[in-house]
């Protein structure tokens, strides 16, 4: 199981993409969802910035709900983490739009 997880993480890091036919069908939806997600997070940042219960010294997205970190790895000099993220549901677990997000160290 460990090898499977490591291979999956490496595949994600090197940019494994869905087949071209599937990409063509979903690219417009993905672009629209990304724009909508960015707008929702930008709108929520002011509220998150003044929340005294928000972590300060641990990884967190700029705003909205995230789940625990899964798949933390060190690859080619960078730390990478993957986590479930809902850019629309504020501080609650959302059934409307949960996706996998990625963050990398500088």
At a glance:
The protein is α+β, with helices and mostly antiparallel strands and 106 residues long.
Provide structural commentary.
- The chain is α+β, with helices and mostly antiparallel strands.
- The chain has one domain.
- Helices cover 40% and strands 25% of the residues.
- The protein has helices at 2-13, 20-49, and strands spanning 65-75, 78-86, 99-104.
- It is globular.
Strand content: 15-25%
Order of helices and strands: HHEEE
- How many separate structural domains? 1
Helix percentage range: 25-40%
- Rg calc: 15 Å
User: What is the mean predicted local confidence, pLDDT?
Assistant: 73
Shape: globular
For the record, give the distance between the C-alpha atoms at the N and C termini, rounded to a whole number. Answer: 29 Å
What kind of sheet is the major sheet? Answer: 3 strands, antiparallel
Total beta-strand segments: 3
Q: Tally the helices.
A: 2
Low-confidence stretches: 1-25
Q: How does the helix and strand content classify structurally?
A: alpha+beta
Largest sheet: spatial strand order: 1-2-3
């Amino acid at each position: 199981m460990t090898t499977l997880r490591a291979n999956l993480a490496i595949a994600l890091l090197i940019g494994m993409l869905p087949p071209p036919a599937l990409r063509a069908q979903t690219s417009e939806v993905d672009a629209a969802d990304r724009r909508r997600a960015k707008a929702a997070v930008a709108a929520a940042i002011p509220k998150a910035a003044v929340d005294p219960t928000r972590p300060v010294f641990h990884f967190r997205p700029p705003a909205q709900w995230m789940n625990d970190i899964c798949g933390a790895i060190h690859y080619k000099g960078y730390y990478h983490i993957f986590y479930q993220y809902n850019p629309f549901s504020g501080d609650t677990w959302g059934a409307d739009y949960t996706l996998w997000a990625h963050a990398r160290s500088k």
